[in-house]
Amino acid sequence: MSSLLCVPIMVDEVHEALAAADAARSLGADLVEFRIDTLFQGEGDDLGIDATVRLVEQSPLPCIVTCRPTWEGGLYDGDDAARIALFERLGAMDRPPRYIDVEHQAFTRSANLRQKVRLAVQHPDQVRDLSTSLILSHHDFDGRPTSLNRTLADMREDDTAAVTKLAWSARSLRDNLELFELLEDRDRPTIALGMGRFGLMSRVLAPKFGGFLTFASLLDTTTTAPGQPTIRDLLTVYRFRSIRPSTRVYGVIGWPVEHSMSPRIHNAGFELVDHDGVYLPMPVPPEWEHFKATVLALVDDPRLDFAGASVTIPHKAHLLRLAREEGWTIESEADRVGAANTLIVSPDDIRVANSDVYGIRLALRHADVDVDGRRAVILGAGGAARAAAVALLDLGAKVAVCNRTLENAKALAGDFDGVEVLPWEDRPGSETQLVINSTPVGMSSADDEAATAASPLEPAHLDALPPTCTVFDTIYNPLETRLLRDAGARGLTTIPGLAMFVHQAAGQFEAWTGIAPERTPTALFERIVSETLA
Ligand code: NAP
After folding, report:
1. Closest ligand 1 atom, CA of 440?
2. Please, which of 43, 234, 249, 291 could form a disulfide with 82 given CB 3.0 to 4.6 Å?
3. pLDDT, tens digit, 9 for 90 and up, residues 24-73
4. Do 23 and 119 sit in the same domain of this protein?
């Protein structure tokens, strides 16, 4: 059976919760979880009981009813006996909830409570005819439970629960692998989820490992646990319904990666060419040790079917270093640039590549810009500048590098034969036929609203360029930078960073799917990024 999709709803008002449940149904949810933590206030709250009964009766989808106490991360601060009495009442309804959720800690603490729960739910020795089942749950918001094995053994000893649920705050991507192990070793339907930014993988890949269900919020603002995706993203970006045991796993490794465009374009591309893969954001903290430990864990896990990744800031040099340490195949462009942005994992080979070089080359070709024998000036001396140097040298250009810190420009020039160094004050002049901006100047920034008003070239620099010069900005957010606007206003040919981004992504897509370059959905990639950033 494939994994169910459940939308949790924190209930304040019954009619609002029912409207949210209806919206969840129309978006494609299978179940809703009514969190009645504050709707029901404990013993003597007859209004709360009536409201919960109405909620369950009128729910447009099968539901889970949960009244999570404060000591397990919820908001209910009444006593256990009162909420279990409510569950008994719900269990006896004509149309009862499909599940009630009770914490393992409450269940084991009191034999009396255990007995009462057994009277409210379906289990092998039940005396009454009931159709509500028990989800026995354990949450840990501090990290992996220290007593995980004992808790699990304990949960499995009792046959009352139809479903077991384990959720903890994932501290790294590696925690997902342990959650998948729990799913594979299950003795009954099991939910195993990682909370927080590192846990998204466990939520999306539940169907790959036979997870009973995953939770997705109705809106960005209505999550009931950290790291929960929205139902829209789960269904449309990650294509939850098409994930199956054979699905190969890809991702973008970086820090931060939450706002990366790559999951949107690669997942849409996989769908278009019918590739059985899913592509996820994979946050890995900046340090080399984190990168190495995580990538090796992903590559070495036989169950995950990890097939590749885009690797971005700050890990491009780390990927090349790891490939050298591990003896993986290094494509010559990655070696020459000194950084890699693509990892390709196949059963008999692990390869790293640098598709930024390819992206620059194709962006120039599609704009019909011939640089052979012509002067090209690269602004910046970082990773993108190095990729530009390799691409331009291969195309026969006369390359100069111009950077704010002269030493860094000299270091770049020292690594490539025939690259001239220009001081930052002497930015390109009348001989220049191509300028590539490889600095972040003009890029949109969450911390600085004025950032997009900046340009690495002053009007006087642009005025000095010949009318035949092309200005290429590697920045793709915003889609049209101030530099491109200013250059366009002077009649110069411009190439936006979007062209490079789309073609470097196409290079990765081709390497992973084996698809011919002419079949790569670059137009689809371009449309998605343009629509998202517009
Ligand atoms: P990086 O390695 O950090 O290098 C940044 C370079 O920009 C350095 O040489 C730095 O000079 C210079 N710089 C930074 N701030 C500056 C400022 N305020 N004024 C002048 N120079 C400045 O970064 P990267 O990985 O090369 O990325 C650079 C840009 O390329 C990014 O902003 C990104 O938008 C773009 N990019 C685009 C794509 C694409 O697919 N379209 C792919 C990769 C990168 P110093 O040496 O003085 O520090």
Report:
1. 32
2. 43
3. 999 999 999 999 999 999 999 999 999 999 999 999 999 999 999 999 99
4. yes
